[in-house]
Amino acid sequence: MTIDVKPTASHFINGEYIEGGTEDLPVIYPYTGEVVATLKLADDALVDQAVAAAKAAQPAWAAMSGVERGRILRRAADIMRERNRELSEIETMDTGKPLQETLVADAASGAEALEYFGGLAASLGGEHIQLGDDFAYTRREALGVCVGIGAWNYPIQIASWKSAPALACGNTMVFKPSETTPLSALKLAEILIEAGAPAGVFNVVQGKGAVGSRLVTHPDVAKVSLTGSVPTGRKVYAAAAEGLRHVTMELGGKSPLVIFDDANIENAVSAAINANFYSSGQICSNGTRVFVQKGIKEAFLSRLAERLKGVKMGDPMDEEVNFGPMVSEQQISIVEGYQAKAQAEGARLISGGKRLDGPGYWMEPTVYADVADDMTIAKEEIFGPVMSVLDFETEEEAIKRANATEFGLAAGVFTNDLSRGHRVAAAFEAGTTWINTYNLTPVEVPFGGSKMSGVGRENGRAAIEHYSEMKTVYVAMGDTEAPF
Ligand code: NDP
């Protein structure tokens, strides 16, 4: 089944849909490989128009009370929930992810972000510092125009995770979705207007790297938040630094999931499945290096093989389907390249391992065992349904090997030893860690990476720090002294 996902127009600027731009941008449904809509890439004039709209709208938006801004965001959350099915179908058509997932993980997560930050908006403030008779206070102020740039795996979630804290703090935003998934951010823009956001508060322009680059270096932009790969993150961070702009970088990972022999194996297998095959493995925080303690290795692998029989591929719009195609020909070719390397470098194939015939971009859920730390699949982010199982003997060894990567996005540990769980979580060099679960990212909890995986945090109160700045106001109660 396909649905009509053609948007009213390609861009959303200053409260309305706008058509125009340069090249065509085809939107492909990954299940069938068909073009389901054709948009246009923005030209420089449209990018400048979007930034100008955001700049013009920002002072009045920041001047509104937090209660008023929060009410609009919470109303947008309600509208998003009411339209969850429509938004989920659009997301499925854009990404290929099964409706079973998009119904619960995409617009639903976006609505939570709007609700959470809408709730915080009224209580953002500073502190009072008494200095004898004098005193000082701090004000939390908006940064100005923020730019959001998204990846293709969670399009509306990323747009919402960025815009909700930005708007709560009194900023306005220009958002550029990934060229691969341009549709749902337009819906968010529409919903914010319907919820009462003034024109220009949230704008969407379509484009590839060149549009992103123009936004990042625009003199009227105060902050850039990117979700993307490490190579893009490097470029965007450097370009933003030129103008000393604030940044949030949510980048890639090669995260470890360490399973000790005292763990509940069934739960550990569930976590390994979620951490490698949800969204066909196209999740930044995935635990793609599954370290299993030697004593339970065979039991773990045999239970995993058993559970993989439950995979149901097929029409992503069928709610029984629990595994969808990959997002694009480009991404599946990258993953095919890693499969070839894994097999050439001697990883033991437990299941899957190949691309299925089209239409669409189908990669089997794949598990390799006996993976060594120096194999390519253990070192590089694959961003597809490929799990590497590595074995280890001691806790010390597991921590050392888990941390032996330039990435530091996430990490998980499974154990029934309470002290060990906390000890290992503390030892992980990663921004987001889990004990006895994996990949849960509720909006109340800060999310982000360390090392090459990122800068800053999304979600939780922590995100407020990254979308606002402090102003100090010193108040003198007496005379002003001077040496002469
Ligand atoms: P890319 O890094 O290829 O692209 C990310 C975004 O940046 C896209 O919108 C892209 O545009 C844009 N872009 C590319 N070049 C530039 C530039 N020079 N200046 C400004 N913007 C630019 O990532 P993918 O879209 O392929 O997404 C996959 C990656 O995202 C993975 O590495 C994954 O780990 C990471 N990711 C991280 C998450 C996190 O929260 N830490 C969450 C989800 C994904 P376009 O693609 O349209 O050309």
UniProtKB/TrEMBL annotation:
Top-level division of the source organism's lineage: Bacteria
Molecular-function annotations in GO: betaine-aldehyde dehydrogenase (NAD+) activity; metal ion binding
InterPro entries given in the database record: Ald_DH/histidinol_DH, Ald_DH_C, Ald_DH_CS_CYS, Ald_DH_CS_GLU, Ald_DH_N, Aldehyde_DH_dom, BADH
Swiss-Prot/TrEMBL keywords: Metal-binding, NAD, Oxidation, Oxidoreductase, Potassium
Domain Aldehyde dehydrogenase: 18-473
Any Pfam family hit: Aldedh
Enzyme Commission numbers on file: 1.2.1.8
KW Oxidoreductase (keyword) present: yes
Keyword Metal-binding: yes
Catalytic residue positions: E250
Uppermost EC category: oxidoreductase
GO BP, sorted A to Z: glycine betaine biosynthetic process from choline
Record-linked Gene3D superfamilies: Aldehyde Dehydrogenase, Chain A, domain 1 (3.40.605.10), Aldehyde Dehydrogenase, Chain A, domain 2 (3.40.309.10)
Family to which this protein belongs: Belongs to the aldehyde dehydrogenase family.
Protein's recorded name: Betaine-aldehyde dehydrogenase
Gene assigned in the entry: betB
